[in-house]
Amino acid sequence: MNDRETEQGLRGQAKALLEEGKVNYIIGYEPGSLKFTTTPLITKDKDSVDRLVISPFIVNNLSEYLTELKGRIGIVAKGCDSRSIVSLIQDNQVKREDVVILGVPCSGIIDLSKVEGLVGKDRDEIDDIVWEDSKVTITVAGDRKEFHIGEVLFDNCLGCEFSIPQEYDILLGESSSLVVDKATSREKIETLEAMSQEQRWNFWEKEFSRCIRCYACRNVCPACFCERCFVEESEPQWMAPVPRWQDNLMFQVIRNIHVAGRCTDCGECERACPMNIPLRSLTKEMCDIVDDLYHFKAGMDKEAAPLMTHYETTDPEDFIK
Amino acid sequence: MWQRTLGVAITTPSILELKALFNLLSSYHNMPDFGGGQVTPESEWEPKLLGFLCRWCSYAGADLAGTSRKKYPANIRIIKVPCSGRVDPLFILKALRLGFDGVLVSGCYPGDCHYQTGNYRARRRMAITKKFLEYVGIDPQRIQASWVSASEGGKFTEVVTEVTEGLKKIGPNKLFADER
Amino acid sequence: MAGSKKISKEDVAELLNEWNQEFDLFIPSKDEDVAKLAKWDGKDTSFLDWYRNTVVPPKANFLPSMEEMFHFQKDKEGYHIELPSSNGQKQLIFGIRPCDANAMAILDKTFEDAYEDPYYLSKRKNTVLVGLGCTKPYDSCFCTSLGSSPTDSTNVDLMLTDIGDWFLVEAITDAGKELVAKAGSLIGRATKADETRAKEAREAAHSKVTRHLDTKDIDNKLLASFEAQDFWEEIAAKCVSCGVCTLLCPTCYCFDISDELVRDRGARFRSWDSCSFPVYTKMPEENPREEKWRRVRNKVYHKYEFYPINFEVIACTGCGRCIRQCPVNWDITQTLEKMQAKAQS
Q1: Taking the CB of residue B83, how many other CB atoms lie within 10 A of it?
Q2: Domain of residue A39, residue span
Q3: Which of B4, B27, B31 is closest, CB to CB, to C79?
Q4: Which terminus of chain B has fewer Cβ atoms in its 10 Å neighbourhood, N or C?
């Protein structure tokens, strides 16, 4: 996805949108301050858009910012991101006419922690990461190692079904093939599903003992747009701010239930977690539950009613006495 | 006669019944200690079931069971909600966190909801909550839902009996205890 | 330096076991690939191979993420309050990096200020710090811009410098000297050649720090930007107001206090809090830092302006955790450079 032409195209479009007054803000990606990273660029300035990039490292879900910015916004969106935008439109948090979606067909984003694991080095010790066709070449101290691209993409990318944005105003670049590896994408969940009930609970107790309640998971999630989150409620206080594993687990479980039908499996929560808690093993499971029960995938149709405000008279109720 | 109040905040609950009930119930012998669940000896244990009953149908049904002198296990403690759609899965999980062994949400039959659509929302919420919590590692028998109409005193007693028996079989909720 | 000593890396396990008899000994360890301090298990020194720095800073051993302050019971006579039992156990942190040791000295100023915090200070008093100089600073490190270096021994009791198969060992304080004495023959004399290698190692580590920030007179330069709302709105735009930077910062110390009650008994806990959280300054009547740009501005000024005004030291040691862990790569050094450029213009 390292296409110079696409990048130039993006910069041109973004600049035009600002110059013509069609948007107040452009949200995209620019090079980060650390090697192989990108960072959100949120700007009103038409010259700043020259810094916009498209690369295999554009990891953030920028729709996160739509609920806090006022005015019309031009936003760069990958497949999963565009579904988050549609989900926000479904929830009436964003008006369709207030966003100009600059769609970017995406073949997958490189997970730097997987790269680090493969070469046994930290990100800043790696010289270069080059993706060509289905191979990625990682250079460390002049020594080049080749891997199949499927070994370094994020798990949710490996399970992606919608690489072309569902909804867009301008499509940048051509679609390229997806690397699909549904087995790997669901591997951690399969492992959990194979465990006994007690083993699963023990697993989550252990994982959530590391949680420090930084709320990075919640704050990077576009589906978490409540102005006052239940976790900060003090009358009544559902959980203390004290990071006990019981309350950490309860927080995450309820958060998942609250965003059911809005979560698009962008994987940002898991990536943002500084304590490596496998949050996607919860979020993806919820996406699957919702699909199984109601044949619903978040953010597919901006006219559709949100999952949990909608109902059918034929909804399953075999579990109800 | 207290010497100091320590400036401990007495929060004014906005959900009065919920808070009052939770506090009241802390006097029962296996109420957890601000942390996890304390467990009493096996021989003494009786499951504690929390019921969210909708005011128009299920609560009335429970009332009818009482006035008809129908017997049902005293393990259930009831919180009246205006509609089953009022129940946020947060309440269910909080109840389990506090040490309840099971939670029952009961409402009007689909199509009969006093507020038209509340129970349809509850149906969707309960469905995903049960499945999700099962995946996380909570026995699905601890989270139950039922439709009980105002005239179904008998059904209410059956539901409570069945759920209570189920809880007795799976044992006390030690999920959130500090020592497990 | 006269009287320097050294220890073979192969003898480190034995050394730790020796010290473990008297101290609760903490070493860098990995929990699901998250590096943090953990109790020494008696044998695993593999951290010597992978250790650069921990994700969770050593402040967690002095200001834990959750800490009981006291518990109480109420009966007819009133409230009975009890402090949590403490065994006065001594603590040894092995392998603390200079940035984190400097951070402890910065935190001390707050906790021994007008009110002496007994929870923090009792732990601090009972702890010895064995520093380990860095050989591989991160690209996010900038300790050298804050008057320190990857091998700075100012705030440790004992300092180890990596010289290949050995560590050079220098006692910095009396407590450090005692540690050396306890080690007996495990710690031997260092030669002139060893000292030269150590000097070279220090210079090499220093030169590997590639991130630089001009902090000379920075507090004066920052004043110019305080009122510039447009500037701060732009700087703050990509921040998502989570607490990662502050909770993982070795010099951040904000905490929340909550009481937990169950009928007649309860406890008061403190736990980590963050000025980045939107509700941090929320009060019934108003929230002075409702807008995100105010919170971001506050964080920068607290560290680089207000803390220096109050305590004559910048509340940042250049450890780089905030840059590494931020989910959106918000970088304080970039912000400070922009502020300095603004002051120039």
Answers
A1: 22
A2: 4-111+153-309
A3: B4
A4: N
Asked if residue B7 is part of any domain, the answer here is no
Number of domains in chain A: 2
Q: Which residues of chain A have pLDDT under 50?
A: 1
In a domain? residue C213: no
Round to whole Å and give the CA distance between C251 and C199: 29
Neighbouring chains of B at 3+ CB pairs under 8 Å are A, C
Q: Do A216 and C243 touch (CB under 8 A)?
A: yes
pLDDT digits (tens, 9 = 90+) for B53-93: 999 999 999 999 999 999 999 999 999 999 999 999 999 99
Residue C71 sits at φ, ψ, to 5 deg, of -125, 160
Q: What is the pLDDT of residue A135?
A: 94
pLDDT at B11: 32
**Cβ of C243 and A213 within 8 Å?**
yes
Task: Output the domain CATH number for residue A132.
Answer: 3.10.450
Of all residues in chain A, the one with the smallest CA distance to C284 is A234
Q: Which two tokens stand for residue C261?
A: 């009650």
CB contact, 8 Å: A55 with chain C? no
A282 in reach of chain B (CB within 8 A): yes
Domain that holds residue C275: 218-344
Same-domain pairing of C186 and C232: no
Report the domain count for chain B: 1
Looking at the complex, report in whole angstroms how far the Cα of residue C38 sits from the nearest Cα belonging to chain A. 12
Residue C2: band (very low, low, confident or very high) from pLDDT cuts 50, 70, 90: low
Asked if A137 and A242 sit in the same domain, the reply is no
Chains that touch C (3 or more CB pairs under 8 A): A, B
Buried b (16+ CB within 10 A) or exposed e, C245-269: bbbbbbbbbbbeebbbbbeebbbbb
Task: Report ipTM (2 d.p.).
Answer: 0.95
Whether the model pTM is above 0.90: yes
Token output for A185: 């994408």
Q: Which residues of B touch C284 (CB under 8 A)?
A: none
